[in-house]
Design brief:
The complex is a heterodimer of chains A (220) and B (271).
Chain A lengths: L2 H42 L1 H15 L3 H11 L9 H26 L3 H9 L4 H31 L11 H12 L2 H32 L7
Helix pairs in contact in A: 1-2, 1-4, 1-6, 1-7, 2-4, 3-4, 4-6, 5-6, 6-8, 7-8
Chain B lengths: L1 H4 L6 E12 L2 E12 L3 E5 L6 H8 L7 E6 L2 E2 L2 E4 L2 E4 L2 H8 L2 E4 L11 H11 L5 H14 L15 H13 L5 E5 L7 H16 L3 E5 L3 H7 L2 E6 L2 E6 L1 H6 L4 H19 L1
Classes of the chains: A mainly alpha (220), B alpha/beta (271).
């Protein structure tokens, strides 16, 4: 690759990388919130709990790409036309919600049952117990896998190129095709993904170390 | 419902009537009847697996009796009468009812993410909706009462087992319960830490608290309790004032149990 072509493509690639970061952040936010709601619904049981459970099972057993295609192409006959960026955020978010719901569930389940009973005996109601006693203690268990999920999500945004969402992988495919330099461009964007993922991976490590010795880990 | 709940002793605070508890194929409690007067201290003793803890958990509604009922101050625990049928109370009603019952657990169960002070304050601020400013002096008083004023800002992991259990007692007292349940409160403690917890319980007894105490500490039971209840195989086998039950037990099972336990405790004291 000549330096000139490289320099010419750089602004385009950086803009696309920025979109990748945006899709990652928004999808992560959606997945975190919706996943928590799903986990709470499951913990509550009843009809709501069963609905949440069915959602989780179905979505977890389905490739994220299928979900993206369903949202982007599948809804069109029903008159719902989403732009590719929104479809990418919603699709990846819905997919991640099912995954994170399971992460939350295991975190909630890891809190000792005596904690719940002690909270019950001072008269806290179920939602209060969840908020003031269970969730704060589940946090250390849940944060590292959430961080790992964020790293995978960053990389998985590349599948959004298949619905032409304006992210890094799509731009790389365009450029690689235009200049017929696949090795150069794919290596370049590979490095760009790595540069974005690396601080996140360091962050997850730091979280793990923090909670491994932190007081929050201790349950009696 | 009031008549039904108060057909026992007229001044009973706690009434346990015909309580059965079955887990799967195992009958853990069989037809247990017991009344506790306001201000009375009742110690429940017996071999492990005799149903003492399950009985206490039924009083707290942490277990639901398979048959029979528990009533506190004339109110059925965990149940309400709806169109002539006893139905499970709502989450809110059960929580409300539990504010009158304090429970101290074998494993302390302090909230590890909160300081000692915050542990004590959680109930009054979140359940009784009182302001932090109003609750904090009261919480500090309670910690002082259990001898831990200087540990108010420490997290549970920095406290010894005995200290944790004393904070747990203060946490229960913060809700100003009418009744305190102690479920083997000293069984998880190193021997040298048992005394400090028993001292706090002694103070509480002296203040007139109604106490239902499941314990293996026979000497403490003898000293503090007005009445000893001996359970075996899910039934109350024997009960009476401590002097009688410990020193002139009439029932052969009580005799056998006490002989085994007191021998062991005497040996432990001698060593």
């Amino acid at each position: 690759m000549s330096w000139q072509i490289f320099l010419d493509s750089l602004p385009e690639l950086l803009e696309a990388a920025l979109n990748t970061i945006k899709i990652t952040c928004l999808a992560f936010l959606l997945a975190s919130v919706l996943g928590l709601l799903l986990a709470l619904a499951r913990a509550a049981g009843g009809v709501v709990g069963r609905v949440a459970r069915v959602y989780i099972e179905i979505v977890r057993g389905m490739p994220a790409l299928t979900l993206l295609f369903l949202i982007y192409f599948g809804l069109v006959p029903m008159g719902i036309v989403l732009n590719s960026f929104v479809a990418a955020v919603v699709g990846l978010g819905l997919n991640g919600a099912a995954y994170l719901a399971e992460v939350y569930r295991s975190g909630i389940g890891a809190v000792a049952s005596g904690q719940r009973e002690a909270a019950q005996m001072i008269g806290l109601r179920r939602p209060q117990i969840m908020r003031h006693v269970i969730l704060p203690q589940a946090l250390p268990t849940v944060l590292p896998p959430m961080g790992n999920y964020a790293v995978s999500l960053l990389k998985d945004t590349s599948i959004a190129s298949l619905i032409s969402a304006p992210e890094l992988m799509l731009r790389a495919r365009d450029l690689a095709g235009t200049y017929y330099l696949p090795m150069d461009y794919y290596l370049l964007v590979g490095a760009m993904y790595l540069i974005m993922a690396w601080p996140m991976m360091r962050g997850v490590r730091a979280l793990e170390r923090h909670f491994a010795r932190g007081r929050l880990q201790g349950g009696t | 419902m009031a008549e039904q709940a108060t057909d026992g002793a007229a001044d009973a605070l706690v009434e346990i009537r015909g309580v059965d508890k079955v887990f799967g194929d195992t009958r853990v409690l069989g037809r247990v009847d017991l009344s506790v007067r306001a201000g009375e201290k009742v110690a429940i003793i017996g071999p492990s697996g005799s149903g003492k803890t399950t009985l206490l958990r039924c009083v707290a509604h942490l277990e639901k009796p398979t048959a029979g009922y528990v009533a506190i101050a004339g109110q059925r625990v965990g149940e309400k009468l709806v169109n002539g049928h006893w139905r499970e109370m709502s989450d809110r009603e059960i929580a409300q009812m539990r504010t009158g019952i304090g429970m101290v657990f074998q494993r302390f169960n302090l909230f590890p993410h909160l300081t000692a002070l915050e542990n004590v304050m959680l109930g009054p601020t979140r359940v009784l909706k009182r302001s932090r400013a109003e609750v904090e002096p009261l919480a500090r008083d309670l910690l002082r009462k259990v001898g831990l004023a200087h540990k108010a800002d420490d997290y549970p992991e920095r406290l010894s087992g005995g200290q944790q259990q004393r904070v747990a007692i203060a946490r229960s007292l913060a809700m100003q319960p009418k009744l305190m349940l102690f479920d083997e409160a000293t069984s998880a403690l190193d021997p040298e830490l048992i005394g400090e917890v028993l001292n706090v319980m002694r103070d509480l007894a002296r203040d007139g608290m109604t106490m239902l105490i499941v314990t293996h500490e026979m000497r403490f039971a003898e000293e503090v309790a007005d009445r000893i209840v001996f359970m075996d195989h899910g039934r109350i086998v024997d009960e009476g004032p401590p002097g009688e039950l410990f020193h002139a037990p009439s029932h052969p099972r009580t005799q056998a149990f006490l002989r085994a336990v007191l021998d062991r405790q005497t040996m432990a004291d001698a060593s």
